Amino acid sequence: MFYQPKNGHGLPHNPFNAIVAPRPIGWISTRGSDGSENLAPYSFFNAVAYTPPQVMFASTGAKPDRETGKDSIANIIETGVFCASIVEYAARDAMNMTSGPWGREVDEFALADIPRAPCETIACSRVASAPAALECRLTQIVTLEGPSNLLILGEVVGVHLRDDCLVDGMFDITRFQALARCGYQDYTVVRETFTLKRPGV
């Protein structure tokens, strides 16, 4: 099968996000200038550079109560910071609850009964129980083709690692079973890894 996206795929559901999978999930927490907090998962999320460490996530939807798209983006524009917590399998239901189309007045930490903790270098909360959390300062927002498509890039200025996820000085994602997004409404979980050494390294 071959199709051109501009002409449609002819399938019952769009296969695109099932092709580029699995994808890590950034559980993005933000705080507005009024002190209100928001927590939402983004599966268009990844690390993009080592020095300085940087991450990205993309927002691809709009909300009727926000001119800038989603609550996360509006808060980041106001404050210039965000925190990306990593999602473990045990938090799957709480993460899913925070993905709903809630109004801007809703605090998803409270809605999903998620413990929060203050960040160290930015004015924002993080998921206290997360295996890892990346405190980020906004570096740029890029407008992508299409309606409501925004790419948010941030420099990581603080890193939280849960002690039980460190094994012999290495961060072990099998300790918490990292959750990842597949296509449609499907997810997967990392329970085992293997090592391949690069040629010449």
Structural overview:
With 201 residues, the chain is mainly beta. It has a single domain (13-189), classed as Pnp Oxidase, Chain A, CATH 2.30.110.10. The protein is 11% helix and 35% strand. It has four helices and 14 strands. It has helices spanning 16-19, 71-79, 92-97, 108-111; strands at residues 23-24, 26-31, 37-42, 45-49, 54-59, 81-86, 116-118, 125-127, 132-143, 150-161, 166-167, 170-171, 179-181, 187-189. The strands form four sheets. Strands 3-2-6-9-10-5-4 form a seven-stranded antiparallel β-sheet, with helices on one face. Strands 1-13-14 form a three-stranded antiparallel β-sheet, with no helix packed on it. The mean pLDDT is 95.
CATH class annotation: Mainly Beta
The domain tally reads 1
Order of helices and strands: HEEEEEHEHHEEEEEEEE
Overall outline: globular
Looking at the structure, the CATH topology is Pnp Oxidase, Chain A
Which sheet architecture does the biggest sheet show?
Answer: 7 strands, antiparallel
Query: DSSP helix count?
Result: 4
Radius of gyration: 17 Å
Average pLDDT over all residues = 95
- Placed side by side, the strands forming the largest sheet appear as 3-2-6-9-10-5-4
Q: For the record, what is the CATH homologous superfamily label?
A: Electron Transport, Fmn-binding Protein, Chain A
How helix-rich are the residues, as a percent range?
Answer: 10-25%
Number of strands: 14
Structural class, by secondary structure, is: mainly beta
| End-to-end separation | 39 Å
Q: Identify low-pLDDT runs.
A: none
Query: β content, as a range?
Result: 35-45%
